[in-house]
């Protein structure tokens, strides 16, 4: 990321209240405990990344988490381009932002120009990839911007994302494969980091109800497979990654990118690509199923304002730089 020497200092004198600090640090601590316990139960070597979804919460709440949690909460997710841009201007550059909402190509410059943007989690078209690439290419000393390909694992019309992959026979003609190849070949200022899904609410609720599984006598692989069987969206995303990795390794189109994607082209079966799945309701099952990146909002910050207009009005003074 392109950051300045003073990146750890705030850009505006924002001061969280004692109540904010206590409430938010306690909530995020509880989320970390859930992640740690689920990781231990699954016999995982590494815990997934926690992205605290901060949309419609004020900058002081984000600062309370970033400065007062132990360890510091670094990754935060936002859904709206203008809100992310405004918050990034007044908060430390030591924060690593994730954009997790639907991003239109005409808003790409607004988001991709943020120097401490860590990841776009919702890439779903070549048009958007090109728009992001153009912006990042114009930034001085900017590291490649991470992107996830968004997969619509549930097939719901109201969900964004590309159709999942089920078999290698269909892979080369799929939008997922074509977008992955385009990012790898044509977008030198982007870095393909993985695949993500939001999934169906009904599957998420089922995961919550079956979250307490007995895993002590099973191998890590068996634990992950059982967890994926609980939530079809998790299983579909896992399959999509595997099919995509296998198809890319057989492709002559991307062999020239081996220096940028060594693990993808010749590493383990994950190909260095992350799975981003799991939220508050299905957190434990997602961790057991192998998620590398979990997104948690309410359980980190509490209930949001009833409407976006009310939330933006309430934080207006904090956003004035």
Automatic annotation (TrEMBL):
Single GO molecular function: pyridoxal phosphate binding
Any coiled-coil regions, as ranges: none
Keywords: Pyridoxal phosphate
Modified residues (N6-(pyridoxal phosphate)lysine): 55
Region (Disordered) residue spans: 1-20
Biased composition (Polar residues): 1-19
SUPFAM superfamilies to which the protein is assigned, alphabetical: PLP-binding barrel (SSF51419)
Domain of life: Eukaryota
Ranges where the Alanine racemase N-terminal domain occurs: 35-208
HAMAP family, per the entry: PLP_homeostasis
Family assignment from sequence similarity: Belongs to the pyridoxal phosphate-binding protein YggS/PROSC family.
General function of this protein: Pyridoxal 5'-phosphate (PLP)-binding protein, which may be involved in intracellular homeostatic regulation of pyridoxal 5'-phosphate (PLP), the active form of vitamin B6.
Name of this chain's protein: Pyridoxal phosphate homeostasis protein
């Amino acid at each position: 990321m392109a950051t300045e020497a003073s990146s750890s200092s705030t850009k505006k004198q924002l001061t969280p209240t004692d109540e904010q600090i206590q409430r938010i640090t306690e909530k995020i601590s509880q989320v970390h405990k859930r992640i740690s316990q689920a990781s231990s139960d699954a016999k995982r070597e590494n815990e997934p990344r926690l992205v605290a979804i901060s949309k419609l919460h004020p900058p002081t709440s984000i600062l309370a988490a970033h400065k007062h949690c132990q360890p510091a909460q670094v990754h935060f997710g936002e859904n709206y381009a203008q809100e992310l841009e405004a918050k990034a201007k007044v908060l430390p550059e030591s924060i690593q932002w994730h954009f997790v909402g639907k991003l239109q190509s005409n808003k790409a410059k607004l988001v991709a120009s943020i120097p401490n943007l860590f990841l776009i989690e919702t890439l779903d078209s070549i048009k958007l990839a090109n728009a992001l690439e153009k912006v990042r290419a114009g930034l001085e000393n900017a590291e490649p911007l991470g992107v996830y390909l968004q997969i619509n694992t549930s097939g719901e019309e109201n969900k964004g994302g590309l159709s999942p992959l089920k078999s290698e026979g269909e892979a080369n003609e799929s939008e997922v494969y074509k977008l992955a190849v385009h990012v790898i070949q044509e977008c030198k200022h982007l870095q393909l980091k993985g695949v993500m899904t939001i999934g169906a609410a009904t599957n998420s609720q089922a995961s919550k109800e079956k979250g307490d599984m007995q895993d002590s006598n099973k191998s890590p692989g068996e634990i992950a497979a059982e967890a994926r069987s609980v939530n079809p969206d998790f299983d579909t995303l896992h399959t999509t990654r595997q099919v995509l990795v296998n198809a890319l390794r057989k492709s002559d189109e991307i062999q020239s990118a081996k220096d940028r994607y060594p693990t993808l082209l010749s590493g383990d079966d994950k190909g260095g690509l992350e799975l981003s799945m799991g939220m508050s309701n299905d957190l434990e099952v997602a961790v057991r199923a192998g998620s590398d990146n979990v997104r948690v909002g309410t359980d980190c910050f509490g209930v949001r304002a009833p409407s976006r207009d009310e939330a933006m009005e309430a934080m207006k003074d904090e956003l004035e730089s």
